Amino acid sequence: MLRLISTEDSDSSVSECLDESLNESKCFNFSNNQDKFVVSVEGNIGCGKSTCLKYFQNSPNVEALREPLHLWCNVRGHNALELLYQDPKRWSFSFNTYVQLTRLNMHEHKTEKPVKMLERSLYSTRYCFVENDMRSGILSPLEGAVLSEWFDFTIANRDCHVDLIVYLRASPEICYDRIRKRNRKEEKCVPFQLIKDLHDLHEQWLIEQNTFKPPAPVLVIDASPDLSELHTLYDKHRQEILCGYI
After folding, report:
1. Where exactly are the transmembrane stretches of this chain (predicted)?
2. Lower Cβ count inside 10 Å, N or C end of the chain?
């Protein structure tokens, strides 16, 4: 059963989905009898995912796996991320093919710690980023079909389970402002429309749940406050996020 937790600042449509039973960590069951609790931190570009993982990686029970930007920016000498933003129609298929490989490596990473925390997952790659490029025509119908086939095969045949999704929810305007402030050279040409479209796809997937089914319960955290203030919210939901491991 998919259950949704909201923060006090979330809107009424989200608050109506509040399930108090999620306040008890015992309500979580590990997927497929796995002995690791897998948390995927999801959200738009600039929503604060890296800040979230940095916070929880200080726990002795958590291994936090960041997005492998260093790999995407140096694929045997090629900066795939920068090329994607410069010419998405030319490079989206190549980039997303490589991203699926690196995401799979994250899902299958072995850890001795009881909680494995991922910065995004194969699911958001397909349901948000690839889906956006398919809808906008950046990917051709054939390219979209190939990426979808690879995704379906991988999910069916490899261990990509997720036990909890933490959705860091922030407006496109806030995310875009953070992107501008952090000033990564690969992101200099990121258009606001992309951030808005990705926001809409995250909402459809994780809030409205009318396009694709989330693979795990969804905990929604309002990521609108300044990133330095979000630690309070992480503390509040620490039990749920870490399945009782402090």
Report:
1. none
2. N
The helix-helix angle for 88-108 and 141-157 (nearest 10°) equals 0
119 is catalytic: yes
**Which residue(s) pair with 38 in the sheet?**
116
Distances, alpha carbon 91 to alpha carbons 10, 60, 98, 205, in Å: 37, 39, 11, 25
Which residue in 63, 119, 131, 240 is the catalytic one?
119
pLDDT in tens, the chain (246 residues): 234 543 333 333 333 333 443 443 344 444 544 679 999 999 999 999 999 999 999 999 999 999 999 999 999 999 999 999 999 999 999 999 999 999 999 999 999 999 999 999 999 999 999 999 999 999 999 999 999 999 999 999 999 999 999 999 999 999 999 999 998 888 888 999 999 999 999 999 999 999 999 999 999 999 999 887 888 889 888 888 998 776
Residue 117, both tokens: 């925390």
If one counts every other C-beta atom within 10 angstroms of the C-beta of residue 221, the result is: 26
Question: What pTM, to 2 d.p., does this model score?
Answer: 0.86
